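User: Sequence recovery, please. Input:
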């Protein structure tokens, strides 16, 4: 349930010195290296509590909502694109990355609080021809028409989980980079280079007239002609 602060994932934007121990993330939708416990978010990132005891009280009293649902588990893992709502202080945040690949929070307004973007990690064919889309945050979506590709992004309502838009990862798409040395920036896709048995797929990007390359798995589509949400932090 705890680990030494010196050993916490690099994505946690917390000091390694001062405290010896830190809570670990409980098993959940996001992998441990790409998520952070809710108690750390409340105490260390948002600084709404002075210590772990106060943070646990805030959480266990049902004051924190993740993607529109109340969460009362202090070690619940928060990950990329999740929304964190705290009605008592009228604040809503979205989980993003900074340019060092560390988890950060961006305050968002009413126009963004009722939806999130989810990347399609893989697809499963079920009985009677239905398609199950497996999303990056552990959700599964059943669809009738197989128009979605792995790597595409869905805009869904929260907490209802209704698909309201399909954002393909293709040439011309706007993407936010969730990993690699260019993490935390937005760019436009110029080309997608298929992978081989020895090399993963790569995307060629353009930003401010400059070209860059990164792994396709780091490219998270956020829009076609314009972004569906604000990602600047």
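Assistant: Recovered sequence (233 residues):
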């Amino acid at each position: 349930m705890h680990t030494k602060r010196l050993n916490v994932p690099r994505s946690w934007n917390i000091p390694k010195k001062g405290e010896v121990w830190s809570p670990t993330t409980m098993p959940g939708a996001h992998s441990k290296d790409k998520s952070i416990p809710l108690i750390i978010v409340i105490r260390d990132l948002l600084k709404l509590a002075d210590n772990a005891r106060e943070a646990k009280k805030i959480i266990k009293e049902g004051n924190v909502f993740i993607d529109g649902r109340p969460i009362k588990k202090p070690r619940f893992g928060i990950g990329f694109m999740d929304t964190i709502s705290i009605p008592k202080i009228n604040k809503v945040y979205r989980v993003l990355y900074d340019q060092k690949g560390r988890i950060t929070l961006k305050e968002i307004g009413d126009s963004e609080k009722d939806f999130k973007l989810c990347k399609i990690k893989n697809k499963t064919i079920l009985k009677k021809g239905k398609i199950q889309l497996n999303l990056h945050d552990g959700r599964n979506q059943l669809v009738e028409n197989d128009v979605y590709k792995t790597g595409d992004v869905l805009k869904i309502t929260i907490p209802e989980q209704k698909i309201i838009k399909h954002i393909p990862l293709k040439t011309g798409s706007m993407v936010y980079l969730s990993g690699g040395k260019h993490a935390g920036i937005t760019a436009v896709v110029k080309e997608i280079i298929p992978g081989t048995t020895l090399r993963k797929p790569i995307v060629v990007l353009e930003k401010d007239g400059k070209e860059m390359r990164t792994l396709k798995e780091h490219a998270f589509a956020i829009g076609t002609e314009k972004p569906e949400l604000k990602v600047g932090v």
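The chain has a mean pLDDT of 89.
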